[in-house]
Amino acid sequence: MSDTTAATPAGAEAAHDAERYAEKDFGFWIYLMTDAVIFALLFATYIVLSRGTAGGPTGSDLFSLPHTFGETMLLLVSSTTFGMASLAARAGNRGGVLAWLAITAVLGLAFVGMEIQEFAGMIAKGAGPDRSGFLSGFFTLVGTHGVHVSVGLISIVVMMGQIATKGLTVPVLSRLMRLALFWHFLDIVWIGIFSVVYLPGVL
Amino acid sequence: MQHTASTQGPDLRAYLTGLVLALILTAIPFALVYFKLLSTGPTVAAIVIAAIVQVLVHLRFFLHIDFRRTPKENLLTLFFACFLIMVMVGGSLWIMIDLHYRMAL
Questions:
Q1: Chain A: nearest CA to B68, how far in angstroms?
Q2: Where along chain A do its domains lie?
Q3: How far is CA A66 from the centre of its chain?
Q4: Is the CB of residue B34 less than 8 Å away from at least one CB of chain A?
Q5: Element (H, E) at A94
Q6: What residues form the membrane-spanning segments (chain B) (predicted)?
Q7: Exposure string for A62-88, b = 16+ CB within 10 A, e = fewer
Q8: What digits encode the pLDDT tens for the residues B10-51?
Q9: CB A162 within 8 A of CB A175
C-alpha cells in the first residue's frame, strides 16, 4: 500500500515503468495507423481493379451474402469477447481472462476457416487471383486482412501462455492491452471490406 | 496500483452498447442489399453512411477513443492517418476515374 509514494525508489521506478509502457502504447498506435494506410491503399487498388473482370466471374457470381454475414458476426462477437477479456484483466480475474481469450480465439479461428473455405471454393471454380484484375485486387485485400487475423490468433495463444505462466503482471497487462487494440482494429478493417467489396459486389 | 487502474477506463456497458449499435449498423446494409429494398443509388449511399458510423462506433466503444482521456498525440496521429488516407485514396481514385473517362472519349 505504502509503496506507491513517488519519493521512494520503488515509486520512482514504477513511475518510470508507467512512462515506458505509455511510450510502447504510442509506438503501437503509430504502427496501427500505418497499417490503416496500407489497407486504405489496398482498398483503392481494389476499387480501381474491381470492374476489370476480363470476361471472368464478377462479384455477384462469386460472393455469398449469408457467408459474409456469418464472417462479420464471428469477428464482431470476437471483438466483444476480447473486450470481456480486457475487463476481466482489469478486475484481476486470471481464469476469466483465459476463458474469454479462448472464446475469442475459437471465434477468430472460425472466421479464418470460413475465409479459407471461401478462397478454396473460388480457386476450385477457376476464380483464383490470376483470373482477372478484379480477383487479384480481391485476394490481395481480403487475404491481407486474413493474414492479420491469423497473426492475431497466434498472438492470442502466446498471450494465453504468458498469462498462464507469468500471471497478470504489469508487462503482461500492457501487452494484452495492445493486442486488444490490434484485434479491435482488424474488426474496423472488416467493416470496410464488407462495405466496399461484398455488399457492392452483389448489388 | 491495480485498484487505481480499475477506477478508470471502459466498463461492460461500453462494450455492450458498441455490440448492439454495431449489430444494427451491420444489419441495415446487409438487409438493404439482400432483400433489394432500395434502388442502387440510395443503397450505395446507405452502405457508405452505415460503414462510416459503424467505424466511429467501434473507435468509441471498442478502442475507447475519447477526446478527453485519449492522449493528444494518439488523436493527432489518428487524424494525420485519416488525412493521408483521404489524400492518397481520394487522389488515386480521382486520377484513375478521370483517366477511365478520358480513355472512353
A1: 16
A2: 61-202
A3: 21
A4: yes
A5: helix A94-124
A6: 12-35, 41-63, 75-97
A7: bbeeeebbebbebbbbbbbbbbbbbbb
A8: 889 999 999 999 999 999 999 999 999 999 999 999 999 999
A9: yes
> A72 to each of A110, A132, A191, how far by Cα in Å?
11, 26, 8
Closest partner CB to B9 (pick from A26, A41, A90):
A90
C-alpha cell at B93: 481514385
The residues, ordered by sequence, that sit 6+ positions from B102 with a Cβ below 8 Å of its Cβ are none
Query: d(Cα A92, Cα B2) in Å, to the nearest integer?
Result: 8
Tens digit of pLDDT for each residue in A112-133? 999 999 999 999 999 999 999 9
pLDDT digits (tens, 9 = 90+) for A190-199: 999 999 999 9
Distance, in Å, from the CA atom of B47 to the CA atom of B37, rounded to the nearest integer, reads: 13
| Cα B105 from Cα B103, distance rounded (Å) | 6
Q: What is the mean pLDDT of chain B?
A: 90
Say if pTM beats, i.e. exceeds, 0.95.
Answer: no
Quick check: A32 pLDDT over 90?
yes
Residue B71's region, left for phi above 0, alpha for psi from -120 to 50, else beta, is beta
Closest CA to B10 of A185, A23, A82: A82
Q: Looking up cell 520503488, which residue turns up?
A: A10
**C-alpha cell belonging to residue A103:** 472464446
CB A28 within 8 A of CB A181: yes
Question: Quick one: pLDDT at residue A165?
Answer: 97
Find residues 101-130 of chain A whose CB sits inside 8 Å of chain B: none
Q: Which helix (H) or strand (E) holds A183?
A: helix A170-193
Q: How many CB pairs under 8 A join A and B?
A: 113
What top-level class would CATH report for the domain A61-202?
A: mainly alpha
